[in-house]
Amino acid sequence: MLALYHAEPLANTMKVLIALEEKGLDFESHYVDLHRFEQHEPAFLAINPAGQVPVLVHDGQTIVESTVINEYLEEVFPQTPLLPGSPAARATARALNKFVDDVVMPSVSMIAWHHRVRKVAQRTDPAEMERMIARIPLAAQRAKWRTIAGASFSEEEMALSRERIGEAAARFEAALATSPWLAGAYSLADINAFSHVGARLPWFPDAFNAHKTPRLLDWADRMGARPAVVRVQAMENRTGQRLDGAAPIEREVLAG
Amino acid sequence: MLALYHAEPLANTMKVLIALEEKGLDFESHYVDLHRFEQHEPAFLAINPAGQVPVLVHDGQTIVESTVINEYLEEVFPQTPLLPGSPAARATARALNKFVDDVVMPSVSMIAWHHRVRKVAQRTDPAEMERMIARIPLAAQRAKWRTIAGASFSEEEMALSRERIGEAAARFEAALATSPWLAGAYSLADINAFSHVGARLPWFPDAFNAHKTPRLLDWADRMGARPAVVRVQAMENRTGQRLDGAAPIEREVLAG
Predict the structure, then answer these.
(1) Which of A23, A52, A71 is most worth mutating to test chain B (most B CB atoms within 10 A of its CB)?
(2) Do B91 and A103 touch (CB under 8 A)?
(3) DSSP summary character for residue A181
(4) Touching check for B63 and chain A: CB below 8 Å?
(5) What backbone phi and psi angles, to 5 degrees, belong to B217?
(6) What is the pLDDT of residues A76-97, one digit of tens each?
(7) I need a surface site. Which of A8, A97, B6, B130 has the fewest CB within 10 A?
(8) Chain B contact set for A52 (CB, 8 A)
(9) pTM of the model
(10) Which chain B residues are Cβ-neighbours of A75 within 8 angstroms?
(11) Is-contact B30 B19, C-beta < 8 A?
């Protein structure tokens, strides 16, 4: 029996949902409402003391961290392989996967928090906000909420995030010059990159456009057309938000 | 044939050296002098465009990122397993490994840069410093060098790093209450944690001490007594630096 504790089908939650769908795995869905900060409530902290989604529970075993969950799914359910067969090619996919975790995810998250999540903080009563922040388990997450409840990130921090997104654009575009997917065969690296930035390319027109990254735009189209990705993007999204940047996108970044 | 491009036997370099030694693997050593910024020179960028050590080359295949290199070694050289056998236990080890990568490494690195690397920046001619920074491939590394060449990190940033190290101390101590190693059996998580903080516990007496973390102090002793770790700590260290915090430790953190 597989159970997934998750938020909207976006970012880290999207990443695991795509892997589950690619492998054709049924799972029991447990929705965690990030807008109500359910991820920091005792009931959820009993499942993941870090207070973060997604969490996979398989036959009583709890697996945390989306990158680790996807490696676990790959080991236990080898159908539709999402890592290449040779160790060196697997290392290439894992290094790119780590680049998404370390460079892309935090950069996109900072910009999204600045533009979207800040509104959540601003319309919440300050005393209530402080109570919510005080019970966040991870120091870095507490600091991020305090930043967003205050004057937000500095211009230097925001500029660095934009620069790192440009760096990712160049690296991805170069990788796609030699293969149709980011790390040779279709892999967890594609799923990770799509979930964090590929599904949101219109957010960053300076970094991603037909002139600078034609291959990446084509890759994003091919990703979006995969049946597994179509199914994930059609999943219930209680905020009604869409990824075209036109509608509110607050909830998707609360777990970043 | 295995070849390793590496710096002093510390931090990310130490992590791969311990894995190689645990598995009894011979390798050709290529020393990269971080003090001379050799990692940003064209000759090294041809090997790793990110300009970071360590890099493993195996039968002509280049593997980057210390966490990925250790997973590669584990797959190709299964002798002396460094990940548990069951997928769920492997996931536990990988999640802890990722916690070290995401929380411990950057926090320890920031404090070490503030106290040690800053001196390198301060005694380098500013024009030369700017030339060196300009050729660093990664935006985040450029920003880190500019910060250290200027007024350094803010007190808020330093406080957050110290808080995160305290968080790691609590998590490690709790893990050691149920098993002698951080993730059940001895694993890559122990090697990672030791390389980034376990070998430097005296740097942080508030976080690590006989009162708060008795099990972790014992674990660090057991780690340091492992023959593979003894061999790594005896390897040539061209700075003559030691890990007791008494001698200069500048070089070890340049790759952070």
Answers:
(1) A71
(2) no
(3) B
(4) yes
(5) -65, -40
(6) 999 999 999 999 999 999 999 9
(7) B130
(8) none
(9) 0.94
(10) 87, 90
(11) no
